Amino acid sequence: MKKIFKRALVFLAAGFMLGACEKNAIPEVTEPVAEGAFVKFFFHVDGAPRTNFFLDSKKVTGVAPTTSGIVLGNLYGSAYPSNAYALLPAGNYKMSAVDTVAGKGTAETLASTSVSLASNKHYSAYLVGTTTSYEVFLAEDKLPPADYTKIWWRFMNTMANMPFAVDVYAVRAAIAATETKPAEPMEIIELGKNLGFKQHGSYVELKPGSYTFKVYPTGTAYDPATTKPYIQNAIVLGTLGRVYTTQIRGAYAETPKTSQIDYWRDR
């Protein structure tokens, strides 16, 4: 996971000035925003073209253009901004995910939805689905109060076409005794049950330690301590004061790829 900045990104032209004065240039947010909503954008459709998000007609995501000035978008598995939230004007908008066709002069809206962004609130916006059925949705990130003595974690399900909802656990490995500390047993922390597509759990406090995040089909028989999950990943947590989200993405397969589960720092 990339190093995370400690403050929200103040949004200026999606981080890059792409020549707004050129003929046929894509309109962008280019004015500094002193107050507004904090939004992070995720691109979770495997095989989707390079894509940008728009609020109404203004582009609000981006990557560095090519040396010839071709406008690029974000690829599957990426987030924008990768290390923070973008600060955008509050208000009511049509939020769209657009294939800008790498500057070839045409653009295609893959999906859109109406959103209402409130000042001083945090949101995650997602492009989800499949290459034949795209969706855009917005989730409010109800971040816990800042506390540099704790770690918080939640789970988000953005895996399309799943034939089941999921139960999710953070399993903290047992810690052997030392000369100065007693042994600590394995801990199993529930992050959410019966979470369907586009649903998420609440933030849950976790202790520092070595964790395996395990995802099981709801309604099946399992023991989080021993049963092989549908998908999992392992993480070592040590830094206090952090807030994270684990996500599953792409489209359902009986045997998922390891790249279909990931985590990002929210704060």
Automatic annotation (TrEMBL):
Domain DUF4397: 39-169
Keyword Isomerase: no
Pfam families xrefs: DUF4397
Signal peptide range: 1-25
Keywords linked to the UniProt accession: Signal
Source domain of life: Bacteria
Cell membrane among keywords: no
Name of protein: DUF4397 domain-containing protein
